[in-house]
Amino acid sequence: MALLGILGLIIFVIGIAALFKGEIPQLRISNRKIAGLVVVAGLVVFFVAVAATDTEETPVAENEIEETVVPDEEDKEKDPEKEDEPLEENGEPAEDEKDEDTEEKPELKAYCFDVGQADATLLKGQEAKILIDAGHWQRSEVVSHLNSANVERIDKFIATHPHADHIGQADEVLNSFEI
Questions:
Q1: Sign of CA dihedral 93, 99, 103, 107
Q2: Is residue 27 within 8 Å of residue 14, measured between CB atoms?
Q3: Residue 106 and residue 102: Cα distance in Å, rounded?
Q4: pLDDT of residue 154
Q5: Please, are residues 4 and 48 in contact by the beta-carbon 8 Å criterion?
Q6: Confidence at residue 118, expressed as pLDDT on a 0 to 100 scale
Q7: What is the C-alpha separation between 9 and 14, in angstroms, rounded?
Q8: Residue 92 to residues 20, 73, 83, 99, 107: CA-CA distances in angstroms?
Q9: Within its chain, how far is the Cα of 107 from the centroid?
Q10: What integer pLDDT is reported at residue 108 of this predicted model?
Q11: Residue 102 to residue 105: CA distance in whole angstroms
Q12: C-beta of residue 43 within 8 angstroms of C-beta of residue 2
């Protein structure tokens, strides 16, 4: 279908050139009336190709969410002396090896929701939940993805730009959650 769309654009451009020039004898376009018809034909071919292009992807299971845990900076800079510590079954250091000043580190989870050819990303930390974009307007899974991620309130909602594949379900999100 992409080739048909390109062909439509080429026909359209030839028609526009013929309108300005008045005629293109090599293509048997002898007057502006025929050039106008070529322009219309090019547009029709282009729009038929665009309409016939399948933009809908395979439906995704409602609870299918990509989850990424971003490690804290302190996790990246491990103390080389502690590499060979004995660990308990749960992966924690053995009782006699635990640091007394160890505290739970904050965690940031990034959820990249599968919303077809659109964007919706949730950043979820202990202090805040940030939603970036809200999927495509022809679909309706962002609210259910947020519910699956146990979101009750959204602290910040960022719409990156006003295209249908980024703010399409914003109204549903705004009506479903306190922001």
A1: negative
A2: yes
A3: 12
A4: 92
A5: yes
A6: 81
A7: 9
A8: 77, 19, 13, 11, 17
A9: 23
A10: 84
A11: 9
A12: no
- Contact between 121 and 129 under an 8 Å Cβ cutoff? The reply is no
Task: Compute the distance between CA of residue 64 and CA of residue 162 in angstroms, rounded to an integer.
Answer: 26
Give the 3-state secondary structure of residue 118. coil
Cα 157 from Cα 106, distance rounded (Å) = 21
How many CA atoms lie less than 13 Å away from 59 in the CB half-sphere? Answer: 5
pLDDT for res 69: 62
Q: Are 10 and 42 in contact (CB under 8 A)?
A: yes
How far, rounded to the nearest angstrom, does the alpha carbon of residue 84 sit from its chain's CA centroid? 42
What single string gives the DSSP state of each residue in 91-116? SSBPGGG--TT--PPP-EEEEEE--S
Written as six digits, the tokens of 123 are 């950043």
pLDDT in tens, the chain (179 residues): 678 778 878 888 888 888 888 888 887 888 888 888 888 888 888 888 877 775 555 455 555 555 666 665 555 555 555 555 566 666 666 665 555 555 667 788 888 888 877 888 889 888 889 989 888 888 888 898 899 888 889 998 888 888 888 888 888 889 999 88
